[in-house]
Amino acid sequence: MAEFDVTDQRWTSGKILRDKTIVVTGCSSGIGKETARLIKQLGGDVLGVDVNKTDDYVDELYLADMSDRRTIKALIMALPTGIDGIANIAGLPPTAPADKVLLVNLVGLKFFTENMIPKLNDNASIVNLASLAGFGWQDSLESIRASQELEFEDVPQFMRDHNISNAEGRSYFFSKEALVVWTMQERWSWRDRGIRMNAVSPGPVDTPILKDFLETLGERAEEDNRVMDRPGLPEDIAPVVTFLLSDMTSWIRGTNLPVDGGMMSHLLCKINQLQRD
Question: Which architecture does CATH list for 9-271?
Fold first, then answer.
């Protein structure tokens, strides 16, 4: 069992990720870039993964397309052993081709993570970037169950069978719903080695893809804007990701943490008629 000593200098000096090696996918922009920066600030080393080149806040960069099984296999072979955490942040917005959204946000992410387990140290932490878009996963259980053993080559047929397209951002919403459920299901999968998995669900975040969401969601985005005080920032999300990567969270397992300015609470109160005047 992992132990946490509050007298340890790592905590008092603020270097809660000192000597840890963390893989960050989607490291070149937005939340991924800010997470990489903060990991470095907190004493960790970053193995960055992205389709775009970057020299920012990475100790090593691996160029990889997370929608392609062969590329992911090559990535896994290239990465070293002795990894202390994975931040699965790479993702596509709902304006990208629907099959690519599902491949990157769900199928590729799961394939990469499951095959990286042998390269992780005991007590490693896996953090999946989900979304407030995954809030309604209970309404998609049939499709989510059908996706659990989904292979790369089966994605087009799966989408036809389950009516998943880019209409109203459905491809993106489904990918995040299924990711939230998968995170919960894997809560104890590697408990014998102390490896844990959790998710973080941001609300609307001011990143380069925010306009894609506004374009896709239309009136739904307008409603969010009316009740939110502001969109989130990468700086709001990255600290929660790094907290979950640290040894301070060894007994948090299978949790989906909303980091959304109170939007999930707003939706729950609205659904259950608990709104205050």
Answer: 3-Layer(aba) Sandwich (3.40)
Give the list of residues 6+ apart from residue 80 with CB closer than 8 angstroms, or none.
Answer: 21, 47, 119
Query: If you search the block for the tokens 């709001």, which residue do you land on?
Result: 236
Q: Is 273 left (phi over 0), alpha (psi -120 to 50) or beta?
A: left
Domain boundaries, the chain: 9-271
* pLDDT tens-digit map of 13-37: 569 999 999 999 999 999 999 999 9
Cα Rg for the chain, rounded, in angstroms?
18
Q: Is residue 98 exposed (0-12), middle (13-18) or buried (19+ Cβ within 10 Å)?
A: buried
Element (H, E) at 62: strand 60-63
Prediction pTM value: 0.92
Q: Please state, for a pLDDT cut of 70, what percent of the chain lies above it.
A: 88
Is there a contact between 201 and 180 (Cβ–Cβ < 8 Å)?
A: yes
> Using CA atoms, how far apart are residues 267 and 272, in angstroms rounded to an integer?
9
First-residue to last-residue Cα distance in the chain: 47
Q: Enumerate residues 6+ apart whose C-beta is below 8 A from 52.
A: 28, 29, 63
Phi, psi of 215 (to 5 degrees): -65, -40
Residue range 209-216: mean pLDDT, rounded? 68
- Predicted confidence (pLDDT) per residue in 97-151, tens digit: 999 999 999 999 999 999 999 999 999 999 999 999 999 999 999 999 999 999 9
Token digits of residue 200: 């973080």
What length does the chain have? Answer: 277
- Output DSSP code: residue 140: G
